[in-house]
Specification:
The protein has one domain. Helices cover about 60% and strands about 5% of the residues. It has 9 helices and 3 strands; from the N terminus they run H-H-H-H-H-H-H-H-H-E-E-E. A 3-stranded antiparallel sheet has the order 1-2-3, with no helix packed on it. A hairpin with a 4-residue loop joins strand 2 and strand 3. Helix 1 packs antiparallel against helix 2 and helix 2 packs antiparallel against helix 3. It is globular and about 50 Å long. It starts with 13 loop residues before the first helix and ends in a 12-residue tail after the last strand.
Length: about 230
């Protein structure tokens, strides 16, 4: 993750400065804890095969907090400059870091994973036909709470695991993966998926007021709300 962040005070009000400084202090604290834990574990126990469940849980928590604190820095940069984005190299490093975290999560027994990352207490999934606490817990019980899912199954697990910290990281991981895939193939993951399904993709340029589909066809965006009709 990128460790560089510059605060330009400019015309910011006191609340903005307090928020920015709080984000920086939080990032610095979790970064130090994370690297201290990594160095300690590898110095004292060497291979991850020697780590206890407690070691794995400690690493996973601190890595997650560190990565999310870094994402908060990214969001502050985007506040300053809406066109800001991480470089390809930064995303590759972030991808590798999150992938190592997933390797640790795959070793943690599910009954311990929910201690570190409690399932979000949303209980009305049936009403809105979406995933909720009960859905996630049913998935975990099916997999066996005394089991660890293994690295190869973490991706599938996180699709169903309702926890804000993990979901933020998982979403960013997918974004990094798509960027890397685009650099290698010329298209992002979403474009590739929909293309295989025969679904046309379009991009919108709000400044020019046009829509461009994947065949290059241009259409003008109507400035009339879709629910209004001309009455003659």
């Amino acid at each position: 993750m990128d460790n560089n962040f510059t605060v330009t005070e400019g015309n910011k009000n006191a609340e903005d400065l307090k928020r920015i400084k709080r984000v920086i202090v939080n990032y610095d604290a979790w970064m130090r804890q994370y690297f201290n834990t990594v160095n300690q574990l590898f110095d004292e126990k060497g291979s991850m095969d020697n780590w206890t469940q407690h070691d794995l849980m400690k690493f996973a928590l601190q890595a997650t907090k560190y990565i999310n604190a870094a994402l908060d820095i990214k969001h502050e940069n985007m506040r300053e400059n809406p066109s800001y984005d991480m470089t390809l190299e930064e995303k590759k490093k972030s991808f590798a870091l999150i992938d190592s975290l997933f390797g640790v999560i795959g070793r943690i027994k599910l009954k311990n994973l929910i201690k570190v990352f409690p399932v979000t207490k949303d209980f009305d999934g049936a009403k809105y036909e979406c995933k909720d606490y009960f859905y996630t817990m049913n998935i975990l019980r099916e997999k066996g709470l005394d089991n660890a899912v293994g690295r190869d199954n973490v991706f599938e697990l996180l699709w169903d695991y309702q926890n804000d910290d993990l979901w933020d990281i998982f979403s960013f991981f997918l974004s990094c993966m798509s960027t890397i895939h685009r650099q290698q193939t010329g298209v992002g993951l979403a474009e590739e998926f929909f293309s295989k399904q025969g679904v046309s993709m379009s991009s919108i340029d709000f400044e020019k007021g046009i829509i461009v589909d994947d065949n290059g066809k241009i259409a003008k965006i109507s400035d009339k709300p879709s629910y209004l009709q001309v009455v003659k």
